[in-house]
Fold:
Amino acid sequence: MIKAANVIPYALTKFMAGATPLVKGELAVISSNTAVAGAASISTATILGVVADDADASTIANIYPVNGIELEIDIYQSGTITTFADTDVGENFDFNVTGHVFTIDPNVNTGPMILLRYDNTTLKAIVKIINSCIYM
Structure:
């Protein structure tokens, strides 16, 4: 699950969910003018933000915008590389998506996230989304 850190609760974006329900903590992107769950390699998608609450298909979804927000995300543990190093800070990384679980993949150093901090003990990373990928 992705956690939006310093959000303003009353500043939620409301967007129509697509044909598939959205799950709290997923990253939502725009597809055919609706919000859908993102996938790996989404650096070309327009990112709406983090889904605040579960939303049924074709209903209004509450989404935390990610403009200027730090996100806490788990570090992917099934690849060759499973931790970060100080030299990774400031680099871009991609998501790994398994079901409704989003993690940061230290094996893929291209993508829409910039690594700000990491904790290899708790397997958590703090990231920001690249501005050019963000809706509005």
Notes: DSSP finds no helices and eleven strands in the chain. The mean pLDDT is 91. Residues 11 and 64 are 7 Å apart (CA to CA).
